[in-house]
């Protein structure tokens, strides 16, 4: 039987301190259109758009059990985008989202994006949640 639940291209995991950047990233990704030449080079099945992208504030307004809804969205996402910042590294919720995604998918489906206001000169590992640090070689 086919699963009729929503499938996402990606799930954005972020600290709510980084909400404005996450909103911008969400809009930018969903509005991106791959150039026709790139789609041709990648093959017929390549999508022209990167949507839908899951971001909790936009997708869960009516959900009764947010934790179950988030787990379901993670399970139905092709990739995980982590907005890395000191706040994300310290967030137990971001860490739980990453751990759950990695329990279902491989680390090569995780995309780390460094928040623009992250301190300069800080290594990515210092901005990543513990579950991601543990998954890296």
UniProtKB/TrEMBL annotation:
Species assigned in the record: Caulobacter vibrioides (Caulobacter crescentus)
Residue span(s) of domain TIR: 6-137
Any one GO biological process: signal transduction
Residues annotated as transmembrane: none
Pfam families in UniProt: ThsB_TIR (PF08937)
Gene3D superfamilies with a match to the protein in the record: Toll/interleukin-1 receptor homology (TIR) domain (3.40.50.10140)
Domain of life, per lineage: Bacteria
Protein name listed in UniProt: TIR domain-containing protein
InterPro entries according to UniProt: ThsB__TIR-like_domain (IPR015032), TIR_dom (IPR000157), Toll_tir_struct_dom_sf (IPR035897)
């Amino acid at each position: 039987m086919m699963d009729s639940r929503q499938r996402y291209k990606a799930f954005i995991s972020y600290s709510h301190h980084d909400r404005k950047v996450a909103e911008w990233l969400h809009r930018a990704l969903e509005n991106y259109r791959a150039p026709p030449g790139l789609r041709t080079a990648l093959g017929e099945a390549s999508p022209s758009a990167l949507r839908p992208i899951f971001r909790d504030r936009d997708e869960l307004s009516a959900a009764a059990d947010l934790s179950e809804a988030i787990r379901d969205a993670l399970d139905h996402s092709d990739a995980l985008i982590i907005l890395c910042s000191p706040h994300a590294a310290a967030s137990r919720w971001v860490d739980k989202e990453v751990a759950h995604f990695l329990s279902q998918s491989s680390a090569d489906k995780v995309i780390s994006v460094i928040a623009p206001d992250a301190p300069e000169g800080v290594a990515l590992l210092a901005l990543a949640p513990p579950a991601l640090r543990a998954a890296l070689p």
